[in-house]
Amino acid sequence: MNRSAVMRTDVVVELEDARLDALLSVPAAARGVVLFAHGSGSGRTSPRNVMVAHALEDAGLATLLVDLLTADEQADDARTGLLRFDIDLLGARVLGVSAWLRERPISSALALGYFGASTGAAAALYGASQLRETFAVVSRGGRPDLARDCLKAVRAPTLLIVGGNDVPILPLNEEACRLLGQSAQMEVIPGATHLFEEPGALEQVAHLSRDWFMNHLPPP
Question: 173 in the Ramachandran plot: left (φ > 0), alpha (ψ -120 to 50) or beta?
């Protein structure tokens, strides 16, 4: 798809407890929208998530890259590293942003998916466990163990993408895949580590994510 055909808008998502900065990108005749839940101190400008978002947009999917923490909260988290593990807070923000998307005329009719990275994957799974209108979830190098109590309530087809050399994270995802049940699938990218910085690794993440969402997000 021609990138010029994608409408990109910097937006502020107004929630009861926060104002969150976000980038909404909507291709012409979009068939779904994917909310990106960042993790481990990352945000909407994460180059890894931006690359995946562009691959989804090229396939005709809208994306919302959103900071789940306010600027003040990000500063606190940079000092303490605690808020990135507050899955109740981050999951509630995912649900709030999802409701915001449902209220926008440009995205209200689009099927909703979640893409979560690292601790953001736990927030995405928390959201999917609460919101039945979630059609698909993708986790990249995720920490689904942080949402372990929610996993059996997730009904959305879920893809867990893990690096083959991400030794601490692999067993956590294997256990999560078992708890998620038949609707879950795990893909291991050989030689990749947690950030998928190896040549070609992130491209594989983008392609797997694109195919998962295209196969599971119904057209409007």
Answer: alpha
46: helix, coil or strand? coil
Nearest to 123 by CA among 33, 42, 8, 18: 42
In what helix (H) or strand (E) does residue 39 lie, and over which residues does it extend?
A: none
| DSSP 8-state secondary structure symbol assigned to residue 68 | S
**Alpha-carbon gap, residue 211 to 197, rounded angstroms:** 21
Q: Residue 4: pLDDT band by 50, 70, 90 thresholds?
A: low
Which H or E run contains 8? strand 6-14
pLDDT in tens, 29-69: 999 999 999 876 677 888 899 999 999 999 999 999 999 99
Domains and CATH numbers, the chain: 3-216 (3.40.50.1820)
Asked if 32 and 61 touch (Cβ cutoff 8 Å), the reply is yes
Sign of CA dihedral 68, 126, 99, 139: positive
Tens of pLDDT, residue by residue over 95-140, are 999 999 999 999 999 999 999 999 999 999 999 999 999 999 999 9
Give the 3-state secondary structure of residue 109.
Answer: coil
Total Cβ atoms within 10 A of residue 5: 13
